[in-house]
Amino acid sequence: MNNLEIKLPENNQFFTAEELQQFGQKAVQARETLLQGNGKGNDFLGWTSLPETLDPAIVSSIKEDAQRIKSNSELFVVVGIGGSYLGARAVIEALQSELQSLCKDRKAPLVVYAGHTLSEDYYSQLLSVLDNYNYSVAVISKSGTTTEPAIAFRLIKNHIERKYGKEQARQRIYAITDAEKGALHEIACIEGYKRYVIPDNVGGRFSVLTPVGLLPIAAAGLDIDQLLKGAKDMRKVCVEAPFGENPALQYAAVRNLLYSKGKKVEMLINFLPTLRYISEWWKQLYGESEGKENKGILPHSLSFTTDLHSMGQYVQEGERLLFETLISVKNSHSRVEIPSDEKNLDKLNYLISKTLTEINHCAETGTAIAHRNGGVPIVEIHIPEITEYTLGQLIYFFEFACGVSGYMLGVNPFDQPGVEAYKKNMFALLGKPGFEELRKTLID
Ligand code: PA5
Fold it and tell me: Does 147 contact ligand 1 (Cβ within 6 A)?
């Protein structure tokens, strides 16, 4: 079943039907390259056949571990950066608002994050919070050598071993990393942690449907079977459907077409704050996959109506280099109506009995009309509601479209050579052995 529908900019204001057809053909060719595995970066295509190729024994093991974590932990610390935490956070926060931490009837641990920052104040606070709660930790790094999560894990390992003793701490630590190499792999083997493997042919930002995303999502009390089912159903559509019925091909085609017309910035728009980390995950997916060789659409995101009061002016009247991709969600899980008020001092009685979702949809429609009239093309992605199933669909849709779009752009969507540049300088400045020469050039 495909619950996700795409609506492309309709009129001739931004491009012609012939141009769309031309880019559609390129998208179909790019899909062939992706599926045949004869394009750039083809040793990193393992994600295209997920979740089908995911071993059911791994899924069962994840569910068992999630049960244990739920029974012995009030907090679950996810240590990772970039693709090693954004996918899990995107799904968890889409289904559990930030107010979740205040809910007294929570049935699963609250997930907190580490390894994504070097802020001293953040770790100082986190460690004091961990003093007061029972917790378990997943440390996630494909390379097993990334500095930020390695530092965070050193701090947390030290804390958890002091809190529970080495033996009990070992039972609370889960390591998700390469099968054979990297410092994290070595630590996990020597210390005897429960290990999960990130397949060699799946890059970090495409790894949410492996244990990288699945263990934290399951530990948060969410249904990973439904997530995987959504992804599986969307995979069938992406792989088999012709252009006219294929949202991923259409999305890849239209964004490349708009880019060719000078629309160099894509803003992912939502009207639900719970989708904030879907946007963060999407930005990493597209930014790291396409931003290379001095090319690539700049992925940006806004959350409306909040950001209409900060960035709305620019979108409406600033430089015309933008297009929007709107994630439109039809239904909410709950109902809140505007109550009547006898005095009507706030003049809102015209809204009596309307739900907030109805009001939010009017804001969405009104914004879309205004932005279109202001010269901003809008790609609409419609989903009926936010569930594990529809998130699974959305994730696979964006991943597949990203692979196709990167090939249309002519880059290798599966490497990230630019991410290394800052690391070398940081190592040199910190005095890491092997970086002495670079240190001299930076300090002089
Ligand atoms: O997508 C990617 O490859 C990166 O964003 C990585 O996920 C990120 O740099 C973290 O790397 P690692 O998992 O090796 O610690």
Answer: no
Ordered DSSP codes for 359-418: HHHHHHHHHHHHHHHTT--EEEEEES---HHHHHHHHHHHHHHHHHHHHHHTS-TT--GG
Q: Which of 9-18, 275-284, 285-294 has the lowest mean pLDDT?
A: 9-18
**Catalytic annotation, pick one of 18, 107, 240, 309:** 309
Block residue for tokens 């991410």:
419
Q: What is the predicted pLDDT for the residue at 443?
A: 83
**DSSP E strand boundaries for 160-236:** 173-177, 194-197
Q: pLDDT class for 209, splitting at 50, 70, 90?
A: very high
Query: How far is the centre of ligand 1, averaged over its atoms, from the C-alpha of 105 (Å)?
Result: 35
pLDDT at 260: 97
In this structure, the number of other CB atoms found within 10 A of the CB of residue 218 comes to 25
Contact 186, 177 (CB under 8 A): no
Distance (Å) from CA 234 to ligand 1 centroid: 25
* pLDDT mean across residues, the chain: 95
If you measure from the C-alpha of residue 347 to the centroid of ligand 1, how many angstroms do you get, rounded to a whole number? 51
Q: Are 151 and 118 in contact (CB under 8 A)?
A: yes
- Does residue 444 have a pLDDT over 80? no
**Would you say residue 187 has pLDDT above 90?**
yes
Q: Is 156 in the pocket of ligand 1 (CB under 6 A)?
A: no
Position 422, amino acid: Y
182 lines ligand 1 (CB under 6 A): no
For CA atoms 437, 141, 229, 101, the dihedral sign is: negative
Q: Which one is predicted more confidently, 167 or 106?
A: 167
pLDDT exceeds 80 at position 288: yes
Q: How many whole angstroms from 142 Cα to the centroid of ligand 1? A: 7
Cβ 143 under 6 angstroms from ligand 1 = yes
CA distance 112 to 12: 47
171 lines ligand 1 (CB under 6 A): no
CB 395 within 8 A of CB 277: no
For residue 302, what pLDDT is reported?
97
Straight-line distance from the first to the last Cα atom of the chain, in angstroms, rounded to the nearest whole number: 62
Task: Collect all residues with Cβ–Cβ distance below 8 Å to 155 and sequence separation of at least 6.
Answer: 114, 123, 127
Quote the CA–CA distance of 87 and 92 in Å, as a whole number: 9
Best residue among 146, 185, 198 to mutate for probing ligand 1, ranked by most atoms within 8 Å of CB? 146
DSSP string, 147-166: HHHHHHHHHHHHHHHHHH-H
